[in-house]
Structures are given as structure tokens and as C-alpha cells.
Amino acid sequence: MLNLPKIALGAWAWGSGAVGGNQVFGHNLESKDLKPIFDAAMSAGLNLWDTATVYGMGASEEILGNFVKTVEREKIFLSTKFTPQIAGMYDDSVEKMLDASLKRLNTDYIDVYWVHNPADVEKWTPMLPALIKSGKVKSVGVSNHNLAELKRANEILNAEGCKVEAVQNHFSLLNRSSETSGILDYCKENGIKFFAYMVLEQGALSGKYNTKNPFPAGSDRAKSYNPLLPQLEKLTDEMKKIGEKHNLSAAQVGTAWAINKGTLPIIGVTKIHHVDDAAKIIDVKLSSDEIAELEKFADKANVSTVREWEKKME
After folding, report:
1. Are 282 and 114 in contact (CB under 8 A)?
2. Contact 54, 11 (CB under 8 A)
3. Residue 311, SS3?
4. Are 119 and 149 in contact (CB under 8 A)?
5. Which of 161, 202, 254, 280 is the most buried (most CB within 10 A)?
6. How far apart (Å, rounded) are the C-alpha atoms in residues 82 and 45?
7. Which domains occur in the chain, in start order?
8. Taking a C-beta distance cutoff of 8 angstroms, is the pair 260, 291 a contact?
9. Distance (Å, rounded) from C-alpha 13 to C-alpha 99?
10. Helix (H, G, I), strand (E, B), or coil: what is residue 306?
11. pTM of the prediction?
12. Is 50:10 a contact under the CB 8 Å cutoff?
């Protein structure tokens, strides 16, 4: 199993452009805004960074790559993704998209390289072993794959002496389908790290937003989550209540829940306090009663947060 930190820091909201921070999150964050956050994270020992070619069509990778130059490469873990939906820009070549990522990230290898969406498991998965054997990639993972697609990807890699080392799916109190479908159990049984993205539902479970303080209009997350806020208030109130027992915020409780479920959460960082909050929860233990209570309120909210690029893991 990969030896990684307990939390990854996400750079999806970094930079601007298609599927980038300004469009999805309503942020306009560039290098000057983000360098202090990167430095604070590295100082706190939070050195696993997750990005993707498609985030701002290279903008996120480029910003992170500028920071990578300032540290010793072996002291940072880099995670980025091949996205089949934009493969045509790279002549339908996994390696060409990887090479572009390597250049933007100022590195000659990626610690975890992902097939971002399955699209065609039989087409894209066989291209991964050569990248591992070349040394450009240390390990490979699959994202947004259901259990059948995950198992098939592992079979294809096993035949070449490799394996799926990591899975990255949407997993939160509001979307536990990777657990109910058996994906979490499969990962545990096969020594696969499970990365949980959108643990806080892009801020909807942070405790910051509610019907009186909705997301500012103009971003994809405002469009997706503002209509759900009335149904989420009892859940976020319960998260705050449990947080008071542990001296944690609602956001920290949501992330601690994911860690306690045996996953490695990806926390989007756009402010210094996001780094500080993440560092404080790595070893927080929630009781089984607290976990059950959180999940009970989440079920009562009765909302679907499966987004347009995803599917429910059934």
C-alpha cells in the first residue's frame, strides 16, 4: 500500500479557465495568493498535493509547478490526472498528456497518476503500465470508477505486473455510495488507498453557508448547492454540535468523519486557515455513536450531490 500522508490538499480551485477555480468555485486565485498557503502546508507536513490537467486546462498544474521548484522534489507528493474527455487535445495519448503535466509541474515523475473518469476502461488502462515502467509514474490510480470498472482495471494492470494503487471518488456524508457499493471494502482487502474528494461538498458542509448566507451567485457550486441549503441546515448544525465536543469546526468534523471511515480526504485549500484546520484533525477520533449520528442526519437531508461528470457508485 502507498505510504502517504493522511490528508491530501486539493488545487482544483487554483487558477482560472475552463473547469477551473473561477468557473467552478467563483475564485480568482493566482500564484501570489497561493504561495503563502503552499508554504504553510509544507511547514505543517502536509505535502500531498492533488491536481489535474483539466483543472483550468493546465492552470492549476502550472501554479503548483511554480511552487514545486522551491522545494526538494523528494519532500513532496504529486497527484495529477489523465482525463479521457480531453484526450483529443493530446492525440488520444495518455503519455502525451502526462508529459505536458510533467512540464507544467516542473518534475520528471508523478507519485500518483490517475485515469480521471473511466470513459473506456479497456482503451485507457492498458496505457498505464508503460508509464510505470518508464519511471515517469510511481503508481497509478483510477477515479470515478464503479466497482466493476475498478476490478477490470486491476485485472488489466495485474496482467502487466502492476496494480491499482489508489481510488479517488466523490465521498462525503451526503454521498456514501462508494461504501454501500463495496468499493471501500474492496480497497481495504486489496491494499488500495481510497482518496475521498468533495468531502465537504465544495463548502456546502463547511458550516459557513446556509439559507441566510448562500454561496455567492455566479459559480457552478452556487448553482448546484444553493437550492439544497435548506435541507442541509440540520446536518451542519449537528456537525457544529459534535465539533464543540472536540473543539472543532463543522468543516473539521466532516473531514474527520472521512478519515475515521478509513479514507484519505482531499481538502481544497484557498486560505491559510484551511491548512491550519487540516493539520489539527489528522488524529481526531470520532466515536461510533457520533459517526452514526452524523450519517443519520445526512440521510434525513435526502439530497443527491452527484454532479454532472459523475455517476452514483452502485
Report:
1. no
2. no
3. coil
4. no
5. 254
6. 27
7. 8-301 (3.20.20.100)
8. yes
9. 22
10. coil
11. 0.94
12. yes
Cross-strand bridge partners of residue 9 = 49, 267
Q: Is the Cα dihedral 259, 229, 11, 306 positive or negative?
A: positive
The DSSP H or E segment spanning 140 is strand 140-143
H/E stretch holding 185 reads: helix 183-189
Written as nine digits, the cell of 96 is 502525451
**Calpha distance 192→93 (Å, rounded):** 26
From 158, 168, 164, select the one nearest 192 (Cα to Cα).
164
Nearest to 118 by CA among 81, 73, 65: 81
Please, is 279 exposed, middle or buried when counting C-beta atoms within 10 Å of its C-beta (0-12, 13-18, 19+)?
Answer: middle
pLDDT in tens, 89-145: 999 999 999 999 999 999 999 999 999 988 899 999 999 999 999 999 999 999 999
Question: Which DSSP state fits 7?
Answer: -
- Determine the residue type at 294: L
Euclidean distance between CA atoms 125 and 127, whole angstroms: 5
pLDDT digits (tens, 9 = 90+) for 276-293: 999 999 999 999 999 999
> 130: number of CA atoms within 13 Å, CB side?
9
DSSP 203-250: GTTSSS-BTTBPPPTTSHHHHHHGGGHHHHHHHHHHHHHHHHHHT--H
Rounded Cα–Cα distance for residues 201 and 134 (Å)? 36
| β 112-115/193-197 pair status | unpaired
